[in-house]
């Protein structure tokens, strides 16, 4: 079996404010993978670096890539376009390196259509209230307005409702446990998924129901 057969494409989604950044930082300390960098037509914010945080491109460049099937997925948010460039993802996979995409559900299912082999993981918050608390704490540092917080909160429930259709679902409640779960899912999914039944969307249905019922 060559390297290419072993490389996996992981698609990870979670509501804004779920703490996935902290989890993925821990995962990157344990595994070597290519973290996919998105293209965007918006201007860089302070501290953002081209080709590190995003590929910052023009509207015309974005349209040309979209027209030539250069994206695995793309969408418009707040008057700007965002997309996952296909080429670096496929190049890394062909070289035997895992690829991780961190994207919202609409984009995730676009990817799944093009790459049915993708491993889809949804990270649930312990509650919707915990998301609001985290977003408000974060806004104190980032200076986000109440309007921006509300816009993020508006997407939380619709995003969680898509969790039923993912391959695996886990909860980011206790950080140590969540890191342990994420590492287990990543490692066993690479080996074909045996032993991950507890995290299957079907077995996590009651947990998803509970988070939504208390939203």
Radius of gyration: 17 Å
Q: Write down the secondary-structure element order.
A: HEHEEEHEEHEHEHHEHH
Low-confidence stretches at least 5 residues in length (pLDDT < 50)?
A: none
Biggest sheet: strands side by side, in what order? Answer: 2-7-1-8-9
Please count the helical segments: 9
Instruction: Please state roughly what percent of the residues sit in beta strands, choosing from under 5%, 5-15%, 15-25%, 25-35%, 35-45% or over 45%.
Output: 15-25%
Tell me the distance between the termini. 46 Å
Return the structural class: alpha/beta
Estimate the helix proportion, in percent.
40-55%
Query: What's the architecture of one domain in CATH terms?
Result: 3-Layer(aba) Sandwich
The tally of beta strands, per DSSP, is 9
Mean pLDDT: 93
Largest sheet: 5 strands, parallel
Overall morphology: globular
Characterization of the model:
The protein has 215 residues and is an alpha/beta fold. The protein has a domain at 3-36 and 98-213: 3-Layer(aba) Sandwich (Rossmann fold). It is built from 9 helices and 9 strands. The protein has helices at 3-6, 20-30, 59-67, 86-94, 105-114, 128-142, 146-161, 175-190, 205-213, and strands spanning 9-13, 33-35, 39-40, 55-56, 71-77, 80-85, 98-102, 119-124, 168-171. The chain has a 5-stranded parallel β-sheet, sandwiched between helices. A hairpin with a 2-residue loop joins strand 5 and strand 6. The N and C termini lie far apart (46 Å). The mean pLDDT is 93.
């Amino acid at each position: 079996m060559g390297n290419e057969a072993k490389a996996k494409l992981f698609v990870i989604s979670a509501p804004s404010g779920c703490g996935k950044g902290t989890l993925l930082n821990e995962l990157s300390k344990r595994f070597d993978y290519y973290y996919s960098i998105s293209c965007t037509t918006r201007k860089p914010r302070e501290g953002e670096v081209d080709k590190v945080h995003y590929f910052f491109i023009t509207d015309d460049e974005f349209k040309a890539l979209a027209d030539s099937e250069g994206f695995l997925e793309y969408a418009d948010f707040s008057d700007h376009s965002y997309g996952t460039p296909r080429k670096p993802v496929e190049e890394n996979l062909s070289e035997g390196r895992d690829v991780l995409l961190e994207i919202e559900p609409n984009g995730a299912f676009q990817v799944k259509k093009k790459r049915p082999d993708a491993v889809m993981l949804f990270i649930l918050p312990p509650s919707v209230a915990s998301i609001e608390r985290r977003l408000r704490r974060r806004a104190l540092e980032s200076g986000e307005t109440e309007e921006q917080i509300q816009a993020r909160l508006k997407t939380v429930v619709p995003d969680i409702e898509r969790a039923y259709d993912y391959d695996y679902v886990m909860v980011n409640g206790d950080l140590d446990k969540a890191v342990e779960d994420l590492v287990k899912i990543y490692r066993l999914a690479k080996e074909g998924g045996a032993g991950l039944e507890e995290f299957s969307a079907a077995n996590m249905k009651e947990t998803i129901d509970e988070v939504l019922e208390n939203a």
